Amino acid sequence: MLIAAKLEQVSKRIADACERAHRHPSEINVIAVTKYVALTRAQEALDNGIVHLGENRWQDAKEKWEQLPLSSAVSSDKPIWHFIGSLQSNKAKDVVGKFDYIHSLDRLSLAKAIDKQAEQLDIVVPCFIQVNVSQELTKQGIMEGQVYDFLNELKNYRHIKPIGLMTMAPFEVEPEATRPVFRKLRQWRDDIQNRSDGTSSITELSMGMSNDFEVAIEEGATWIRLGTILVGEKEE
Ligand SMILES: *Cc1c(COP(=O)(O)O)cnc(C)c1O
């Protein structure tokens, strides 16, 4: 299916979810996750007005990062890149300076590696703190109760700007079952805001994927990360 058609369907579902939650679609930033697809398919997303691209691994992203936008393309805008996969500290140098946002900051050793690289490049990297709300042992992310301490520690890393929280809900056949996970992440974000009298830079919520983005929007998502449903699973 063409991305134009997929985007039309997804946009309608986003608009409907926003209406149910009394939100405006302009509050929702859509990241097209291109990890499953090739260069031309990623360009097709850009040609359809997608601005944000997400990838999990530098090896998978490299060709797209180096070549997009294609010179033959309708859209000649450079994508805004999001690193959404788990990141080993020794790979931070591949990512910092190339990706505009990192969604998977979940430990101090990684913060240190990102900060070091960012300092060398003289940049500040906007990062989401990945939280393991569902407490699955297989999932990345900071556990409940450690978020505030982690944020305090991050103040020592001046080349990192924490801008929000990110989580992945467990896959559920019935998307409604993910709601408590998203609600909890929003409550933590609100709590951080309240503790800081609203001055915290933690304003964003990166949550919701193909299977559960509507529930995430209803619970306050400001960034949704869509792979399968928006660009496809593999070349079609
Ligand atoms: C792959 C991936 C996505 C997109 O997954 P879909 O279910 O295909 O939408 C979103 N977020 C993260 C962190 C991912 O790894």
Automatic annotation (TrEMBL):
It comes from the Bacteria. SUPFAM superfamilies: PLP-binding barrel. HAMAP family: PLP_homeostasis. Pyridoxal 5'-phosphate (PLP)-binding protein, which is involved in PLP homeostasis. Belongs to the pyridoxal phosphate-binding protein YggS/PROSC family. InterPro entries: Ala_racemase_N, PLP-binding_barrel, PyrdxlP_homeostasis. PANTHER family: PROLINE SYNTHETASE CO-TRANSCRIBED BACTERIAL HOMOLOG PROTEIN, PYRIDOXAL PHOSPHATE HOMEOSTASIS PROTEIN. The modification N6-(pyridoxal phosphate)lysine is found at residue 35. It holds the Pfam family Ala_racemase_N. Residues 24-233 form the Alanine racemase N-terminal domain. Coiled coil: none annotated. It comes from Paenibacillus yanchengensis. Keywords: Pyridoxal phosphate. The keyword Disulfide bond does not apply. This is Pyridoxal phosphate homeostasis protein.
